[in-house]
Specification:
This protein is of the alpha/beta class. About 40% of the residues lie in helices and about 15% in strands. The protein has two domains: about 10-150 and about 310-325, Aspartate/ornithine carbamoyltransferase (Rossmann fold), CATH 3.40.50.1370; about 150-310, Aspartate/ornithine carbamoyltransferase (Rossmann fold, 3-Layer(aba) Sandwich). The strands form two sheets. It has a five-stranded parallel sheet with strand order 7-6-5-8-9. The structure holds phosphoric acid mono(formamide)ester and norvaline.
């Protein structure tokens, strides 16, 4: 069913070395060429690492990582990524920082910028990271906010590209809570690469309107569509890529019971996936709840590429770190 395809048609930058991004907060802030460049560079980082060739592009550099929410993949992949690039990463729990005792974002950003070469933050309100980036004098990377999860989506695009050999013109279907960080960044990512995205979600869980209308401009430019509907069987029709995420994101734990009821008809299972293309691939950023948003037979089945997707966090983030800190 699934099989990696030869990569052929990424847009190349005329001068790859020229890519310089000041912060990495959302996918929408990048141009389409920058998104393609980062995917291409992530693929190069992957080849270098697999072949055991040295690639210490960030020798001696240090990334500070602030976590206000739990993490397995983001923390470990950034830490290992920095080590493989010849640098170092330090983990800073907001509970232990003076930030947790009321020190201002402004002071924290300015002070930490004096010690490290880049900062990665996982937090709640997206405005907080924007504020942080405004005051930091080193590049800031969004390691997840309530609204966006851009490093994950770059890894997702790399994974889709590896399996399908292209991005443009494919159909991705997101099923579940569309008003969350993953769906928002997927909408922005799909639009940047000309991938059609259809979203199946219950009433009241639609994606943020401003994010959708902004992404519509890119979608129009690159000839793709963004569709939102309530019926998963209709939305998933002929999808090349099927994606879901937890029904209850971090910070929404007190809504768990209500959400389990509201999302009852939105499980990605074998019955639903019959409507997707025969060779669809299944993505989930993880952590997953089997038999809630996804059936075990799908996430552990032949269409699932979730482990490659998780591994690709490492390679995609190394491309991001280079673009920001090299
Ligand atoms: N997908 C993801 O961001 O995983 P973690 O929460 O474990 O970092
Ligand atoms: N939407 C999920 C993603 C976890 C990586 C959350 O925010 O909890």
């Amino acid at each position: 069913m699934k099989g990696k395809k030869k990569m052929s048609n990424l847009i190349q930058f005329e001068n790859n070395k020229e890519l310089k991004i000041s912060h990495f907060l959302t996918i929408s802030q990048l141009t389409s060429d920058e998104v393609h460049f980062l995917i291409e560079d992530a693929s190069k980082m992957k080849k270098l690492q697999k072949s055991g060739k040295p690639h210490a592009y960030l020798k001696g550099k240090v990334l500070g990582m602030i976590f206000e929410k739990a993490s397995t993949r983001t923390r470990v992949s950034f830490e290992i990524g920095m080590l493989q690039l010849g640098g170092n990463a330090i983990f800073l729990s907001s509970k232990d920082l003076q930030l947790g005792r009321g020190e201002t974002i402004e002071d924290t950003a300015k002070v930490l910028s004096r010690y490290v070469d880049g900062l990665m933050i996982r937090t709640f309100q997206h405005e907080l990271i924007e504020d942080f980036a405004q005051h930091a004098t080193v590049p800031v990377i969004n390691g997840l906010t309530d609204m966006h999860h851009p490093t994950q989506v770059l890894a997702d695009l790399l994974t889709i590209y590896e399996y399908k050999g292209k991005l443009n013109g494919l159909k991705m279907c997101f099923v579940g809570d569309a008003n969350n960080n993953m769906c928002h960044s997927l909408i922005e990512g799909a639009a940047k690469v000309g991938m059609n995205i259809s979203i199946a979600c219950p009433k009241g869980y639609e994606p943020n309107k401003a994010i959708v209308s902004n992404a519509q401009k890119d979608a129009k430019k690159f000839g793709s569509s963004i569709e939102i509907g309530e019926n998963p069987q209709i939305m998933i029709q002929d999808a090349d890529v099927v994606v879901t995420d937890v029904f209850t994101s971090m910070g929404q734990e007190n809504e768990t019971k209500k959400r389990l009821t509201d999302f009852k008809a939105y499980q990605v299972n074998e019955m639903l996936c019959k409507y997707a293309k025969d060779d669809f691939i299944f993505l989930h950023c993880l952590p997953a709840h089997r038999e809630e948003e996804v059936a075990g037979s799908i996430i552990d089945g032949e269409h699932s590429v979730v482990l490659d997707e998780a591994e690709n966090r490492l390679h995609a983030q190394k491309a991001i770190l280079r673009a920001l800190m090299q």
